[in-house]
Amino acid sequence: MAEEITGDNVAADELRAFIERIERMEEEKAAIAADIKEIFAEAKGRGYDTKVIRQIVRIRKQDANERAEHEAILDLYMQAMGMQ
Q: How many domains would you assign to the chain?
């Protein structure tokens, strides 16, 4: 169980270290996001559809079973809407 934190037992140096680590990670995250944005801009400049690229990236993150289930439900819904 976590110990209750009061003014008497907060280690200022440890707290500062946690906050600084988080801040560094946030800076790295922002830099990576900017890099990804540049890659999408480059792909768009070469004529690729960035919405489709984003969708492919999202799909590739899914495991095979999750992807198959999603595709089956999508197919079922499209059939129900008369789209197939």
A: 2
- Give pLDDT, residue 7: 62
* 40-84 pLDDT per residue, tens: 999 999 999 999 999 999 999 999 999 999 999 999 999 999 998
Its domain, for residue 43, covers: 11-48
Q: Is residue 5 situated within a structural domain?
A: no
Question: What residue type is assigned to position 17 of the chain?
Answer: A
Q: C-alpha 11: how far from its chain's center?
A: 33
pLDDT at 8: 58
- Specify whether 29 is located in the same domain as 40: yes
Give the separation between CA 67 and CA 69, rounded to whole angstroms. Answer: 5
